[in-house]
Amino acid sequence: MSAEVHSQDYQRMAHLLRRAGFGADRETVLACLQEGFDATIHKLVHYDEVLGPDTFEAMEDRQLNDILAQNNIADLQIWWLNRMVQTDRPLQEKMTLFWHGHFATAYSKVNSARLMFQQNQLFRRNAVGNFHDLTLAVSKDPAMIWYLDNNTNRKGHPNENYARELMELFTLGIGHYTEQDVRESGRAFTGWTFNRLTGEYVFLPHEHDDGIKTFLGQTGNFNGDDIVNIIMQQPSCAPFICTKLFKFFIHENPTPEEVRPFAEIFRKSNYEIKPVLEAMFRSPVFYSEKAMWSKVKSPTDFVVSAVRATGAQVPVRFLPAAMRAMNQELFNPPSVKGWDGGLTWINTTTLMARFNFAMQLARLNEENQPLLASLEQQIAENRLRTAEAIVDYLAERVLHRPVMEKTRDILVNYMNTDRTGTYQPFTIADTGRIPPAKLMKVHGLLHLILLTPEYQLV
Amino acid sequence: MRTTRREFIRNGLTFLSFGMMAPSSLVRAAAELTDENGRAKAGTGNILVVLQMFGGNDGLNTLIPYTNPLYYQNRPTIGIPKEQVLPISNSVGLHPSMSALQQLFEKGHVAVVQGVGYPNPNFSHFRSQEIWQTADPVSTVVREGWLGRYFDDDGHLRENPLAGINIGGELPRALYSDFGSVVSMQNPNAFQLQTIAPAEHNAEIAAFTALYSQGTMANSTDDLVRKLGLEAYTCSERIRKALQAEANQQDDEPGSPTGRTLDAPSYVGRTGQMSPLARNLHTIAQLIKADLGTKIFYVSTGGFDTHANQFPTQARLLQDLSDSLAAFYAELEQIGVADRVTLVTFSEFGRRVQENASGGTDHGAGSCLFVMGGAVRGGFYGEYPPLDDLYLGNLKFNVDFRQVYATLLDKWLGVSPQKILNGSFTNLPLFA
Fold first, then answer.
1. d(CA B350, CA B362)
2. Confidence of residue B39 (pLDDT cuts 50, 70, 90)
3. Could you tell me if B88 and B102 are in contact, meaning their C-beta atoms sit under 8 angstroms apart?
4. Which terminus, N or C, of chain A has the lesser number of Cβ atoms within 10 Å?
5. What residues contact A39, with CB distance under 8 A and at least 6 apart?
6. What ipTM was assigned to the predicted interfaces of this complex?
7. Omega of the bond leading into A235 within 30 degrees of 0 (cis)
8. For residue A248, how far is the Cα from the chain centroid?
9. A313-329, pLDDT tens digit by residue?
10. What tens digit of pLDDT does each residue of B265-275 get?
């Protein structure tokens, strides 16, 4: 393990790139260290300014059209995973994922890949934009309208599902509104529906209840826009959102005091997301011991970081099933509460799913795995001669953290054990080639690295 | 000694010792509970199998009031003709596909619970499923399921990571608990730690076990991952060894569960293949036989949301249900555990009394459910909901579903239901 990896600055930069993105290799971390933390944070958060418009869109049109026309959600999941793997602005994808879990909407009810994609693009465009604008836009998003039954919310026949979840789960939290507020705001959202054919938001004035409503202490002929405006005036809104952001990026157990400074920034900027993220990535608590390596990787994190680290060309057909077994299906959260996340990601079943996905990844041929191909080349050029060296090389590139002595010993021991369980040093001939029989060991090593407890954390 | 995830993290340091024992304390605990074949030691008691029917099964066409003219008036095209109904009383009968279940009913092993529901019925699939799974018709933010709370309540269950097994992809909310003592698997053969190649298998497993047995000086999240990872492996091994012992035993004994005598019902349906439901129930029977100490099995089957073209769809589904349940019961009898196993079905709601314009029915309420087992007092429970006294066009309930849960918790699983169900509900005399 190179000396610099142990340095505090290196670890902090790697941590930043892991949390604000999907991790980065040694070269990238070093390059970012050269530019400095300020510049790196700026580039991560203000990606649109620094990197210009996203070129992804132009490339994916035709494929996407097929996926949407066929209403193929599995392929859409793969499309998004692919995007996360290849993106040059990973914070955008992470925030898209955050909003997807926050404004939870599930394909199992919506049943339209097109509407789910439309919503996903809404999150992507507003990933680090303005929360007030985003909330209003979500209230008009057809997938959300359908998911929470607002299309059946009509004058005289109210359906309060959206109004309730808007306050309970999306903005304020329980205890900051009354049942009466739910009912009144439900009336304000009547007539907010969408056109099935075009998939576009539609306002039906004749379905809209334009009577006087009293909501959170204010009275007037409110419509949905007004409701969102009034919600944004509530003091509980900023802490509510910032607590979720804190848990997503920093650690799972913030105190209200720890959240307060971020909530103040959020509120003062009128719900601009960038200042909050910048503040978080600069804060001491972000780099504290309580934060570093304290979170369990979400299934998305696990899959995407593994693919990125190995450069694997994963046969995409097994990705949706693997993620379902890990309990995170993109576009299909288990309920309107999204995913609980944190420690709930791991149980005996989901861990088994991670272990077996790791095996599928590790079993790919070298030609589908640039990382293993590069290892072979290193060996061929005689730069790696011992089991220790091979273990160090692979571990560094995958784990991005100093490996515990015990872990290293176990992995080296694995390399030096033959199929009968006898000690057999993993020797590399003078030609530098690894015999095919031993090549399987290298794949096994990659599997073991991906299934270490260390790799489950971020 | 298991703890919730939160407690584990808070008390993190006390678990440093966990890593110093090798093999881990979990493996040791498992050893105390099991014999050398991974089977639970004697006295594991009663087992509950929960069968969830997704979509909202139409109880009115399952348990048919064939002497009631209102039934036929409301269902001119999808009503089951009187002469096709399989009578099980003077006024109600089963859907014609359900002859196997009818036979079981006549032997006294099936309780039919009528008019089951809860106040202010919800007609959204996922909300109503949530209600049945959390046993809470009011709160929308309850995380734990009713069976999860049953696990949490019982110290013994917390020790056994195989206390509950779900056959299926996703862990149902009903089983979700802070302790996470439930394993979810599509099939037990797939719940195995796969290694890169047969030649590497032993070395990989040795390395995996070593990686997951070491304690760390790092944070407690690390330790939790190790604990659960090792548990995943030991569970899979217990299952594998137990089923292997079964397979070996079958080679010695004539007549495997699927190669039964001509009289006994078979899992293999008319198509000549096991349906997914049949296969899953057979798997459960195998796991019961393997005696892993599992108390709760959970399995699902879907397709009951018959908004249109209900006639053929429901016929097929109920045939599958009836045949599979009967074959399951027969296998339990053969194993000799029919008295120790009770199976309960449920669906998130019933369906509207009046048929719709598409030859189907819309979401409703007040459906029936079945409780099946050797110890069950067969017969009728609750009242058949009147067809002339409806709620928004739907049957009214007269048995709160939590009464069924309370009875199962109290009389079958032997635990106090009040705390688990957050209230008191009158038992039904389902058990002798």
1. 9
2. very low
3. yes
4. N
5. none
6. 0.91
7. no
8. 9
9. 777 778 888 898 898 99
10. 677 766 678 89
Which of A287, A310, A328 is at the close of a domain? A287
- Alpha carbons A318 and A296: distance in angstroms, whole number: 22
Q: What share of chain B is helix, strand, coil (3-state, %, to 5)?
A: 40, 15, 45
Owning domain of residue A432 = 366-456
Among residues of chain A, what percentage have pLDDT more than 90? 70
Q: Do B228 and A454 touch (CB under 8 A)?
A: no
Number of helices (H), then strands (E), in chain A:
24, 4
Pick B169's closest partner by Cβ from A161, A324, A454: A324
pLDDT value, residue B179: 61
Options 3.80.10.10, 3.40.50.150, 3.40.720.10, 1.10.10.60; which CATH number does B46-189+276-421 get?
3.40.720.10
Other beta carbons within 10 Å of B193: 21
B307 touches chain A (CB under 8 A): no
Question: Which residue in the set B126, B183, B202 is minimally distant from A109, CB to CB?
Answer: B126
pLDDT band at A53 (very low <50, low <70, confident <90, very high): confident
pLDDT in tens, A95-153: 999 999 999 999 988 889 999 999 999 999 999 999 999 999 999 999 999 998 899 89
Nearest CA in chain A to B221: A294
Q: What CA–CA distances, in Å, run from A339 to A96, A106, A148, B322? A: 14, 11, 17, 36
Q: Which of A267-281, A308-322, B94-108, B191-205 has the lowest mean pLDDT?
A: A308-322
